[in-house]
Amino acid sequence: MSEPFVLEAAGGRRWIVGSPQDPHGDGYVQTVTTELHDDGMTASTVAKIDGQYASLESTLPAFVAGLAADWRGWAGEELAGFAADLGRFLLT
């Protein structure tokens, strides 16, 4: 996969996942850059996928599900629906 995966929602909300990289050249550990964009804000990180022994809690779907579950938002803002939709997408 050379092009990033982009999931877009109404209002310019985006989730972008870059191409997997093998930083050690061993075929075991992969990393991907990932970004969330909404309302002029961006959050980004490099996610590490370390083989078949990764615990469920350390996976990207579990991370996003945790964000959705813990979301408290700001007064007047409604982003929880986006986080929940993204969590459902990742878990299916």
Which structural class fits the helix and strand makeup?
alpha+beta
Distance linking N and C termini: 20 Å
The proportion of strand residues reads 25-35%
Number of strands: 4
Q: Categorize the overall geometry.
A: globular
Please state how the strands of the largest beta sheet are arranged side by side: 1-2-3-4
The overall average pLDDT, rounded, is 75
What is the count of helical runs?
A: 2
Query: Ranges with pLDDT <50 over ≥5 residues?
Result: none
Query: Major β-sheet, in short?
Result: 4 strands, antiparallel
Tell me the radius of gyration.
Answer: 14 Å
Topology as a string of helices (H) and strands (E) = EEEEHH
Write the layout of secondary structure elements.
Elements: E1 5-8, E2 14-17, E3 29-38, E4 41-50, H1 60-70, H2 80-91
Antiparallel strand pairs: 1-2, 2-3, 3-4
Helix pairs in contact: 1-2
Describe this structure in words.
- Helices cover 25% and strands 30% of the residues.
- It has 92 residues and is an alpha+beta fold.
- The protein has a 4-stranded antiparallel sheet, with no helix packed on it.
- The longest helix is centred in the C-terminal third of the chain and has 12 residues.
